[in-house]
Amino acid sequence: MEIPSLQGFTREKGGLMTMEKPLKKGEQHEALRIGVPREVANEERRVAIAPTGVIALVANGHDVYVEEGAGKQAHFRDDEYAEAGAKLVDDPGDLYAQCDLIAKVGPPDGDELDYLKERQILISALNLGGTTAEFLHHLMRLKISGIGFEFIRDPDGTLPLVRMMHEITGSMAIQIAGRYLESNEGGKGVMLGGISGVPPATVVILGAGVVGEWAARTALGYGAHVIVLDTELGALRSLEHYLDRRITTAMASEQYIAQAVRSADVVIGAMMSDGQRSPVLVTEDMVADMAPGGVIVDAVMDQGGCIETSRPTSHSDPVYRESDVVHYCVPNMPSNVARTASYALTNVLVPYLVRIGECGSINEALWHDEGLRSGTYVYRQHLTKKSLATMFGMNYRDIELLIASGI
């Protein structure tokens, strides 16, 4: 039976399957050799490109090299990558040597810095908290074009890769809080959503940004009573509108924060400030006023945290108790849902990689693509981010002038 309305699909046993059609190569198209190494950073379980992304890249004429075991902790098997069209490489040094472009989650570290070669393209997180001037100088000496996840910005002003990770973090914060509220974990023994005749838990969220929004959405899904505080009235108004006024909002004054935290079963730290440390909104005294067995999830520990009693923990040792309140303060929360996070990275990253190939060179890609251009922090031998120059006392050059001059 033909299904005319479903163009581009063919019927096989079991249902409909897409008919793979590689995009036509333009005159400018360049076949890239893209490397996906295994992450070496402590407890980093994500991989930059899932097998589905390899299929799309190969269909567009690119060669993809994947280090053996790169997707293991996200439960992507080597044979899945091979079936998708990737070339498996057992030695990371060989992978770096063969590729024009390296796509990874964390910035290169240790031996990886020695594997980098001249004029390579590097796309990864920069992780501002751990960045050093020496790292930036190393990339510039090699004339590398470095593009950071934190800086890639879409035409509508959003930071797509950052937003995806923040959505995951917000949702996970509630999932984690629900677990640690259970008696077996030393919590109050309270269900987030309650049951008939028993009221739900009270979840207080500090911050109405992306992390706070997705924490609120998830908490509402569980049936919790949700209170969101922020210092910006406009952010609270927007969140009330998006969530159909199913949340309670209040300005984050000291009085309101103290009152809300005292009544909370769960406190989610989600207050962020672009390019700066998160503001500390909850004091040690406020935490001491919480009922025993309450839970704090400081979801912005990678920005310093917004609760005075927070200190960084790890996936292997995620919690501690302070004033008989459970604290979960893992900085890299999305790594613990490595498969979901890897798909999210793939969905955003692969179209950018395809665009670089279509443009024929990184110079042309940066000229034509505002998102990639805004994401660039080093280009050839120059630092191109004013914020980094200020941070390390270095000189910088405007990326648009560098590209226009053909350097």
Q: What is the fold-level CATH name, i.e. the topology of the largest domain?
A: Rossmann fold
**Portion in strands:** 15-25%
What is the gyration radius calculated from CA atoms?
23 Å
Which bin fits the share of residues in helices? 25-40%
The CATH architecture of the largest domain would be 3-Layer(aba) Sandwich
Total of domains:
2
Described by strand count, sense and barrel closure, the largest sheet is: 8 strands, mixed
End-to-end distance, in Å?
Answer: 58 Å
For the record, what is the CATH homologous superfamily label of the largest domain? NAD(P)-binding Rossmann-like Domain
Assembly state here?
single chain
Task: Write a concise synopsis of the structure shown.
The protein is of the alpha/beta class and 407 residues long. The protein has 15 helices and 17 strands. The chain has two domains: 206 residues, Rossmann fold; 168 residues, NAD(P)-binding Rossmann-like Domain (Rossmann fold), CATH 3.40.50.720.
